[in-house]
Design brief:
Helix content is about 25%, strand content about 30%. The protein is α+β, with helices and mostly antiparallel strands and about 180 residues long. The chain has a 7-stranded mixed β-sheet with strand order 1-2-3-4-5-7-6. The radius of gyration is 15 Å and the shape is globular.
Length: about 180
Amino acid sequence: MYAIREMVLEDQPAAERLWARRLAWARARGIGSIRTAPLATARTAMPLVLTFEGVVVALAVVTFPPDFDDGQAPDRGLALGLDRLVTDPDVPMPEAAPLSWIFTTRISDVAAREGYDWIRMRVASDRLAEHFQVRLAWQLEATVHHDGSPVHLLRQRAERNDAVQALAPATTRLCPTLRP
């Protein structure tokens, strides 16, 4: 069974190995570097893990509020940020859905239940931005330049999803600080 929880110190070695495998996977496919921007302006950040039968298969950092603001999104509403989403490239595609869908949909479900309107994410890779738009139905807000490189600002409406809640229960509260 899948579970989402806050990352703990004991997860660090598995998280570092997963990150290294994902970087090697991206380089081998010409995707380019995966940006690891600091969370300097985020008021609160929570690292999360998605596990399958106790094994870490994905990582993400949720920020409250998102650690960027381009001023271009209409209907801004209350947004939760999703940063550094990484799935294990060595885990075969689950029958239920891609790991990225399970993780982002469950975060969206929790965010909606906690009163958020949007999930926002910044993606440097064109291919990854396309994946999120085509496969996971994220919307492109804008493409901006940061340090001379294009960065795609994506958003998805936070929506409840009872099916994903059953598929990947949260074992900790994912949104501890609701309002800035």
